[in-house]
Amino acid sequence: MEQIEMFVIESPCKGVCENSVKGFCKGCLRSRDERFHWFSLSNEDRHHILGLCKQRRARLLKARQERLAANFDKALPYGMEEESVSPLFPFLVNSQK
Question: What's the whole-model pTM score?
Fold first, then answer.
């Protein structure tokens, strides 16, 4: 049984409106067609697009984490030592626990 939507699903636009290399908006991760046709789509189609955007964001975050991990594993240049970094505001770290 399908649930009836009581409210219109608002646009996920974040006001960035800049295309990535792959053609998706850097703010909301919708394609050009998804952005242009948003207001003529049914709520079901909007739900589907929001699901696609969620998947795209998860892939972006995973790729970013893998890229950071790969760069972190690289050895430091000769003569540089790894040192622990103390928090800039230690009183904030202790108060959050």
Answer: 0.66
